[in-house]
Specification:
heterotetramer, A alpha+beta, B alpha/beta, C mainly alpha, D mainly alpha, A: alpha+beta, ten-stranded mixed beta sheet, four-stranded antiparallel beta sheet, 29% helix, D: mainly alpha, MetI-like fold, 2 strands, 1% strand, binds adenosine-5'-triphosphate, binds magnesium ion, ABC_transporter-like_CS (chain B), ABC transporter ATP-binding protein (chain B), transport (chain B), ABC_transporter-like_ATP-bd (chain B), ATP binding (chain B)
């Protein structure tokens, strides 16, 4: 039987580094969600036990009009910010206005995703209505994004940048202290609007940039959890050292590596070369091998394996580069290269200088291409120049990554359309056929039809190979066996509000 | 602080006391052997040395550099460099105890208490970070168990004794705040602190100027007589030996070759080396001969000395037996011993040294245009001077201040003066290695003072230089041949390498070396040989004028004679003109036609060589001549100690008026305010109000 | 003395200015841009306009000379600007880390002095004996073993033996000395070993050299006890070059703990520096470099003062 | 760093023998260094396995005949990677030390020779460079230059390691050059009317060679260490190039229980080779110029 939650205790966990600032809206990094998220509420949130379904957070209930153009939310009553001021629909309106049309000096990285919102109305303090300009099957997920922290309208009116350096939320925890580079402390908010929550007295985050140091800290008992991931080898290490004091949760991650070809640079403007290089990668063997030393694991298409709309194993196997006969695949690849006249191809693979999983992936890819006679220089760059190089097209081939916080194809497939329509597309490829298909995918509300469109889109992407998925990551969370009430999800930004987490009393 | 006054003029009574202890021996060194075990072999630095010192007696040990003088006395002190240096054999009996058998602690108790030692380098022998007071008081506290107050009182007494004024203040000062002469006085004070029975002074004045040297030596002599302290003075200056020593031991290649009373050694030398030594130095007290007599060759390598008499390879009197069998130290007179197979022959006059001719040099035509005329030359340096606590100021060193002279073709112009008086700077400015601040340098009619380095290039061929230090004046990375050939090739004197090669051989031969030496590197040559290479390099330019900056000062006396002779020969052969810089009056007198005496950047007196020595007009010239000891004990005994008092003032802060007035016995108020102009007087040019 | 200090401080200005210009120019060559990194580093997809707006806000669009002038004005008023990453004042960010780094540097210096003085003296006095050889190997080992590897070994050793690692959170020593020391003693040991090696070698060679000096011979000739010869006559002279080394090494530790801080997970200046560089946080890098340069120069000044205190030749000026 | 005027005699042919006799430990180190050089030159023939081949069937294998130092977490042979790592370390170490020493040496000699205002301004610039800790300077330069790999060597990394060396060498060589400049043989050369160029190149440069060569060996050691540190920080050599520092980077230490050989052998390789270079440099200094202090 499920153990009864107990109250009390402080959860110590690690996050890789400080949030640069506290503004959820301006970030796309889990660091902000994991460290600042517990101080805030959002309109909706993902239901961790039934992911990817959503549930209410501030919203008690909601309804969507039949045409999919009107979203009406009923708010929980009696919600207060940590300074005691009440939270009303005005605050939510202010928050969403800031998200979809940030004032000068404010960054909202979610501007595009809320572009479909035409207007926001607040009929009453507990009711808020969003009117859309077009139906959007991804909109509910969008409202559940943990980055949509709800800010105080009053504060925003005084200073739109107020949340950048200050934390005033309505979440389960109150901000106590943040020592840069060292730690951040939160304490239970006694007037949190959900009765009996949170269980924890508070939490304390240690910022530990190095994975090894984090593991050491876990082994030394200084932290009880780290919610991003540990590597497969670390699991063995921790199990050896800590035995049954440690437990693990595992899931395919909504994050993956993508091999991108710079289609503006010959010979990568030649589809044969791109496809050959994609086909030379033995993803299946890589998955089996790399899972033992890196956080790479699942072979998948454009959609995370296991997620709605993902390709089945059979469907995958028919795509170029995913076939089960690697020898044949490589032979084909050599042939394609020969046809393209670049049998002795040499190029540089731009990769991110981050140990997991970029480095092993890079090493593996270099080795794979070596096997079809291609010489690759592995060029690992620090994140900043890496991002710069990839975005500016300063590369031959790049190992890019995708991080799908919201897994609806509307968001996840965006990067594959023509470069002039998608700022995320590093390959510079232009493919109107893909654009058209994508447009239909974003508006198609019929699941069946949508799935078919996605399959077609996927096939085209794999064949043209402007950018092709390599492997999906595997999320492996290690935590003290005492940490309870936390649920695994495919994304490390979901379910991190710590509302339901509790610490079992120490046995012995 | 006039030393001349403090020294007791009549010495007779004191000496009598000193010798009154009779024949008991204070220190007896017997058959001492010291070896150094180095990675390149065993250096037998001292072999079978024996000598005795009686209370109150002054023993001088003389000999060439490296012959083992210092090592033998360090062995007495138990201060040989460990672990390389070892006493292999012998006894050192001091006051009835064999020092070699004492424990380290017992030996320490003797050092500084019974035997004190004074070293050569006053600048480095005192600890720079400890006060003078501490350093003087240290032996008192350690050996005599005095209290601080007692020790300080005694230290004041000691400083007064060695002629330091204001001793109480000096005790709290640091060594760098004193001049070299004062530091040496302090070293003496330290030596005297515990009333030792014996003081060993290892070249105590070599690093000092003649006038200061005279002060220090007078002081030491006086103190040893008054306090009855025996002294061992190590030196290579025969004049000092003659003036101060009772007895003399002459060392050659790790052995004592002759020992006896000072009179015996100087008047009746019985070893050819001792004979040669006396004859190879230019002397102020004798008429000047054209050539010096020299001891040819070089001392042997102590790692591998010759089997027979060690001096045989250089000895003009050697006979067959000399090379086969090493002679013993045998008596040749009362308390007079020599280590020579031919000492009897020498005594009997059967073995004689060939006398060199004394042909006078060709008369110089003084009427022609001078080859070099220096007019009103000033060379000033700007230096930053630390004044006190972290502050400094920019000061001017007037290294050369209004100097004028001329050299005629074929003439040798000597330039003497004590250290720091600006001799080198004159030479360097003439060569345009320094830029003159003011004045003209007319070389063959052309004023060099304002030429650019590029314009100077053709001039440089005709004006060359020989430096003082033979060890640093040759590029250690070039072979001898390359060193001499390089200027010929660069200046187009030799068109091809082969031609240069041939000329190199020629020059090497002319400077007394061998053509095969062209392949060698400088470090494979001795000091004298290196100096010859330096001369050959200068000759290779076929110059008109050569500036010789103390070309023999760094050389041993025997080698010095060789180089001086060589310079004279070459001058005649190549029709050269020399500007010859030196601080040794005898050397300058020997080689020069005319002499300039400088003091603190100014010319004091210019005169013909003989006139200058015969009747010096400037009081400074007179003082210099007085201070220089001559190697003749009889003459020295007749001379009164007339050391010039005081120190050389700092060039940063030269005295007003006549720069010499602070030390001049004749100075009056006029001298203190008005700079004397140079004027002609009896064939001299003198800058003195009193002359 | 006051005048001297004033003059010394004045002469620092050109050096600091040089450092400022150099680091400023060097950073502008660094490829990549903090704005891109901030917005895209974790997969964000901002529009071009957004990126540009953020650049404008951070002043990155201004011409170089304007940026430089702005920064210089800040420097003069002791305002190092704001970090482009956190938008917190750089001084505040640095202040938060300096304590830790300073303490590790000081502890390493103390450890080094405690180890190096006896070892260096011993090996000088027993030059070429087996003691000397053994010490020499130990000290060269200190130069050879990378301190990050040593640090790794220390941590791994602690984990292996006790399943324990030093506490991660820095508490100032006056608040909780035990926690503080148990955190910082390890990195101090890891870098202190190298430091002590450098120092011991310097102490050895300068004692060997001093023992050859004439005044040591003079002291012995006076019959001074050997322990006084070493303690009074030799050590003080030999300390002079050692003081320089101590100063230099200490100053270098302020910025040079980069790797060690990484290994020991210390929230110090070095880690901040590497993070700032990898993030292209120019103002932060500039600020840290200026602080390091100031520490370096001030340490040099202190070394000079120590020199003067130890060496009367400097204290009382030359003749 | 102080320096006495090196009066170093040139020892030619039998120099090596004399060195071996006078400095047996130094000679042993020279032997080790030679072995290291040979190993890196002939790495292809020495190693039992290809250092790049991933073998997922042989992850974290303990040392065995096939894998003398075991395998790493990618199934690569640690021994082969250590041997190839020697190549990386030596090439980068020697190259950057050479570049740094030559540039610094030339700057120092020219500074020492001309003195005056030129010397003053260059010295101030050198002061500026010297007030950066080495690693700080290297980190910034690495970030600044990025990577430029030519023939398997990251030239920019070489530059980044060389730059901190330049001012150090320049300073020491300058002081040597200053004292050499005062030597009479330089005066003789000036009095001979030689050109500046000739005096600098023929008379000064060969005479600062002793401090130069001593510094060069010492800086090879430093450069190897610095390269390892940078690689450890992830700023140096990149995977899959075998390099010692890189082998310790990332999560290598996590395997301390399962595969301690992953961190022991590369660490030893760094330590031993730096040790050898340092000891050799020491011996060389004792041999060439006992008064020289670094
Ligand atoms: N520490 C040492 N190691 C090796 N050889 C030494 C050492 N000290 C002296 N020697 C050698 O011993 C010999 C005698 O040296 P010593 O110092 O006694 O000569 P000296 O007569 O005092 O000469 P100088 O007039 O130059 O002072 C020399 O050949 C010298 O090279
Ligand atoms: N380059 C220089 N900078 C500053 N002062 C200098 C310089 N060269 C010489 N002097 C000073 O000028 C004065 C004269 O020096 P110079 O070398 O000409 O004397 P000298 O007569 O040759 O002495 P010595 O007999 O010691 O060789 C000295 O006080 C010296 O300190
Ligand atoms: Mg001597
Ligand atoms: Mg001179």
């Amino acid at each position: 039987q499920a153990p009864q939650p107990t109250r009390g205790g402080t959860l110590n966990f690690a996050v890789v580094s400080d949030p640069p600032n506290y503004d959820c809206h301006g970030h796309e990094t889990y660091v902000v969600v994991q460290s600042v998220g517990p101080f805030y509420s959002t309109l909706l949130k993902f239901d961790m036990s039934r992911y990817p379904e959503v549930k209410g957070d501030l919203a008690k209930s909601w309804s969507v009009s039949a045409d999919g153009l009107t979203y009406t939310f009923e708010l929980n009553p009696g919600v207060t910010f940590h300074d005691g001021s009440p939270l009303t629909s005005a605050d939510i309106k202010a928050t969403y206005e800031r998200l979809r049309a940030p004032p000068a000096g404010v960054v909202s990285l979610r501007q595009a995703t809320f572009a479909d919102i035409a207007s926001i109305e607040t009929p009453s303090p507990t009711q808020i209505v969003f009117k859309l300009s077009a139906a959007n099957p991804a909109m509910l997920q969008n409202f559940a994004s943990p980055y949509n922290c709800v800010y105080s309208a009053a504060k925003l009116a005084q200073d739109p940048r107020f949340p950048v350096q200050n934390i005033l939320g309505s979440g389960a925890f109150r901000f106590v202290e943040h020592v840069r580079g060292s730690h951040l402390v939160g304490q239970r908010y006694d007037k949190y609007f959900v009765d009996g929550r949170p269980y924890l007295d508070g939490f304390r985050i240690a910022f530990i940039p190095q994975a090894t140091a984090m593991l050491n800290a876990m082994q030394g008992g200084q932290i009880q959890a780290e919610f991003r991931t540990v590597g497969p080898a670390d699991r063995a290490r921790l199990e050896q050292a800590l035995g049954n004091k440690i437990k693990f949760s595992e899931a395919t991650w909504s994050t993956g590596l993508i091999v991108a070809f710079n289609t503006e640079k010959p010979p990568f403007n030649d589809v044969r070369v791109r496809r050959a290089l994609s086909m030379a990668i033995d993803r299946n063997a890589g998955s089996v091998g790399l899972r033992r030393t890196s956080i790479l694991r699942a072979v998948g298409g454009l959609v995370r394996p296991g997620a709605p709309f993902s390709a089945s194993a059979e469907e995958l196997a028919s795509l170029p580069g995913f076939g089960r006969d690697i020898a044949a695949s490589r032979a084909e690849a050599r042939k394609l290269l020969a046809e393209a006249g670049v049998s002795n191809l040499t190029f540089a693979l731009v990769n991110r200088a981050v140990p997991q999983p970029y480095t092993p992936a890079g090493i593996f890819l270099v080795d794979q291409w070596r096997q079809i006679g291609v010489t690759v220089e592995h060029r690992q760059l620090e994140t900043s120049p890496y991002v710069q190089a990839v975005r500016a097209g300063n590369f031959d081939v790049a190992l890019d990554f995708q991080n799908q916080v919201l897994e609806d194809p509307t968001y996840t497939l965006l990067r594959y359309i023509s470069a002039d329509k998608s700022p995320e597309n590093p390959s510079k490829g232009i493919d109107r056929q893909l654009d058209q298909t994508f447009e239909r995918i974003t508006r198609e509300t019929n699941v069946q039809a949508r799935t078919q469109l996605i399959r077609a889109f996927e096939k085209r992407v794999m064949e043209q190979a402007y950018q092709v998925p390599f492997l999906w990551w595997n999320r492996l969370v290690a935590m003290d066996t005492r940490v309870m009430g936390w649920n695994m999800s495919p994304s490390h930004v979901h379910g991190q509000d710590l509302v339901d987490v509790w610490l079992a009393p120490a046995t012995n | 602080m006039a030393l001349a006054e403090t020294a007791a003029p009549e010495t007779g009574g004191v000496t009598a006391v000193a010798h009154g202890k009779g024949d008991e021996v204070l220190l007896s060194v017997r058959d001492l052997h010291v070896h150094f075990h180095t990675s390149r072999g065993i250096v037998r630095a001292v072999e079978g040395v024996s000598y005795e010192v009686r209370p109150g007696e002054v023993l001088a040990i003389v000999g060439e550099s490296g012959c083992g003088k210092s090592v033998s006395s360090l062995a007495v002190m138990g201060l040989l460099a460990k672990p390389a240096g070892r006493v292999e054999k012998g006894e050192i009996i001091f006051d009835g105890r064999d020092l070699l058998k004492l424990s380290g602690e017992d030996m320490r108790a003797i050092r500084g208490r019974d035997i004190a030692m004074i070293f050569q380098e006053p600048m480095t022998s005192l600890n720079p970070v400890l006060t003078i007071g501490l350093q003087v008081m240290e032996p008192l506290l350690i050996h005599l168990a005095m209290t601080e107050a007692q020790a300080r009182a005694r230290a004041v007494e000691l400083l007064t004794l060695v002629g330091i004024t204001d001793p109480d203040r000096r005790l709290d000062q640091y060594p760098h705040q004193m001049s070299g002469g004062m530091r040496q006085r302090i070293m003496i004070a330290i030596g005297l602190a515990c009333n030792p029975k014996l003081i060993i002074a290892d070249e105590p004045t070599t690093a000092l100027d003649v006038t200061i040297q005279a002060q220090i030596l007078e002081l030491m002599k006086d103190l040893s007589r008054r306090l009855g302290i025996a002294m061992v003075i190590i030196t290579h200056n025969l004049g000092i030996v003659a003036r101060y020593a009772d007895r003399v031991a002459v060392m050659y290649a790790a052995r004592i070759v002759e020992t006896g009373s000072a009179d015996d050694i100087f008047l009746k030398p019985r070893h050819p080396y001792a004979v040669g030594l006396m004859r190879s130095v230019p002397r102020l007290d004798r008429p000047r001969g054209a050539r010096l007599q020299t001891i040819e060759g070089m001392p042997p390598d102590l790692r591998n000395p010759p089997v027979g008499c060690r001096f045989a390879p250089r000895c003009p009197l050697k006979i067959a037996v000399c090379e086969a069998q090493a002679p013993d130290l045998l008596g040749v007179g009362p308390a007079h011993f020599a280590r020579c197979h031919r000492s009897a022959d020498l005594a009997a006059g059967l073995a004689v040294f060939a006398e060199e001719g004394t042909a006078p040099s060709a008369a110089i035509d003084y009427t022609g245009a001078p080859i070099l005329a220096v007019e009103g030359l000033k060379t000033h340096f700007w230096v930053s001077r630390k004044t006190s606590w972290f502050s400094s100021e920019l000061a001017t060193v007037k290294a050369v201040d209004d100097v004028s002279f001329a050299i005629r073709k074929g003439e040798t112009l000597g330039l003497v003066g004590e250290s720091g008086c600006g001799k080198t700077t004159v030479g360097r400015t003439v060569l345009r290695l320094e830029n003159p601040t003011e004045g003209a340098i007319r070389f063959e009619g052309q004023d060099l003072a304002h030429l650019s380095q590029k314009e100077l290039r053709p001039v440089r061929r005709r004006m060359q230089v020989v430096f003082q230090d033979p060890f640093s004046s040759l590029n250690p990375r070039m072979t001898v041949g390359d060193i001499i050939a390089e200027p010929m090739l660069v200046h187009g004197i030799a068109a091809t390498k082969a031609e240069a090669r041939a000329r190199v051989d020629d020059y090497l031969t002319r400077v007394g070396l061998f053509p095969y030496m062209a392949e060698r590197y400088p470090h494979e040559m001795s000091g004298g040989q290196r100096q010859r290479i330096g001369i050959a390099r200068a000759l290779a330019f076929e110059p008109q004028l050569i500036v010789c900056d103390e070309p023999v000062s760094a050389l041993d006396v025997s080698i010095q004679g060789q180089v001086i002779n060589l310079l004279e020969d070459l001058k005649r052969q190549f029709d050269l003109t020399f500007l010859f810089i030196a601080h040794d009056l005898a050397v300058v007198r020997h080689i020069s036609d005319r002499i300039i005496v400088m003091y603190l950047g100014r010319i004091m007196e210019v005169a013909d060589r003989d006139a200058l020595y015969a009747e010096p007009l400037h009081p400074y010239t007179r003082a210099l001549l007085d201070a220089a000891p001559v190697p003749d004990p009889v003459k020295e005994r007749g001379r009164k100690p007339r050391a010039l008092a005081g120190e050389i003032p700092s060039p940063l802060n030269p005295p007003k008026g006549c720069v010499f007035h602070t030390r001049c016995p004749l100075a009056d108020d006029h001298c203190r305010t008005v700079v004397p102009a140079a004027r002609e007087l009896a064939g001299h040019v003198v800058a003195c109000h009193k002359a | 003395m006051g005048a001297y200090l004033a003059k010394r401080i004045l002469t620092m200005i050109p050096t600091l200015l040089g450092v400022a210009v150099l680091i400023f120019l060097m950073l502008r060559v660094v490829p990549g841009d903090i704005v891109e990194l901030k917005m895209r580093g974790d997969g964000g997809a901002p529009t071009v306009e957004q990126v540009q707006a953020e650049r404008v806000r951070l002043g990155l669009d201004k011409p170089l000379y304007q940026q430089f002038a702005g920064w210089m004005v800040g420097l003069v008023t002791l305002d190092l600007g704001k970090s482009m990453w956190t938008e917190q004042p750089v001084t505040q960010e640095i202040a938060g880390r300096l304590g830790l780094t300073l303490q590790v540097a000081i502890m390493a210096t103390i450890i080094a002095i405690l180890i190096a003085l006896p070892l260096g003296t011993l090996s000088a006095l027993y030059k070429d004996s087996w003691i000397d050889q053994a010490i020499r190997i130990v000290t060269i080992g200190g130069l050879a073993i990378p301190s990050f590897w040593l640090g790794m070994m220390i941590i791994v050793g602690l984990l292996f033996a006790f399943n324990w690692i030093p506490p991660m959170q820095y508490v100032p020593i006056w608040q909780d000395p035990l926690a503080n020391l148990s955190q910082l003693i390890w990195p101090a040991l890891a870098v202190g070993y190298r430091f002590s090696a450098v120092l011991a070698r310097m102490v050895r060679s300068s004692i060997v050299e001093v023992m050859r000096e004439d005044y040591i011979r003079t002291a012995r000739a006076k019959g001074v006890y050997e322990r006084l010869v070493v303690g009074r006559h030799a050590l003080r002279n030999a300390m002079l070059p050692a003081v320089t080394v101590i100063g230099l090494e200490f100053a270098f530790l302020i910025g040079g703990l980069v790797v060690t801080e990484q290994v020991f997970n210390l929230n110090g200046l070095g880690r901040l520096f590497v993070q700032a560089v990898t993030r292209s946080d120019f103002t932060m890098v500039q600020g840290i470099v200026m602080v390091i340069a100031v520490v370096f120069i001030v340490t040099n000044l202190i070394v000079d003062l120590a020199y003067a205190w130890l060496d009367p030749r400097i204290r009382y000026g030359g003749k | 760093m102080t320096l006495a005027i090196p009066q170093v005699p040139v020892r030619r042919l039998n120099g090596l023998l004399a060195f071996a006799k006078a400095q047996p430990v130094g000679a042993a180190c020279l032997g080790f260094i030679s072995a290291l050089i040979l190993a890196s030159v002939f790495a292809d023939w020495i190693v039992p396995n290809d250092p790049f081949t991933l073998d997922f069937g042989a992850l974290l294998m303990p040392p065995s005949w096939q894998y003398p130092f075991g395998t790493d977490n990618m199934g690569r042979c640690v021994f082969s990677r250590v041997v190839y790592g020697a190549r990386t370390a030596l090439v980068i170490g020697i190259l950057s030390s050479l570049v740094g020493s030559v540039v610094g040496g030339l700057v120092g000699v020219v500074q020492g020779y001309f003195g005056g205002r030129f010397d003053f301004y260059v010295s101030r610039f050198i002061d500026v460079l010297l007030s950066f800790p080495i690693i700080v300077l290297a980190v910034v330069v690495v970030a600044m230059l990025g990577k430029r790999v030519v023939g398997g060597v990251d030239l920019n990394l070489v530059v980044a390691i060389a730059i901190p060396i330049v001012p150090k060498v320049a300073r020491v060589v300058r002081s040597a050059a200053l004292s050499i400049r005062e030597m009479p043989y330089i005066d003789a050369a000036r009095a001979a009317g030689f050109t500046h160029q000739r005096i600098v190149l023929k008379h000064m440069v060969p005479n600062v060679f002793a401090p130069f060569i001593i510094m060069f060996t010492a800086f090879v050691a430093q450069a190897i260490l610095l390269e390892a540190s940078l690689s450890f920080l992830g700023l140096g050599v990149t995977e899959p190039t075998p390099a010692w520092g890189l082998m310790l980077a990332g999560n290598a230490a996590d395997f301390y229980r399962e595969a301690p050989w992953m961190i022991i052998f590369p660490g030893l390789a760094i330590s031993l080779s730096v040790f050898a270079f340092n000891l050799f440099g020491d011996a060389l200094r004792d041999h060439l110029d006992p008064r020289f202090k670094l």
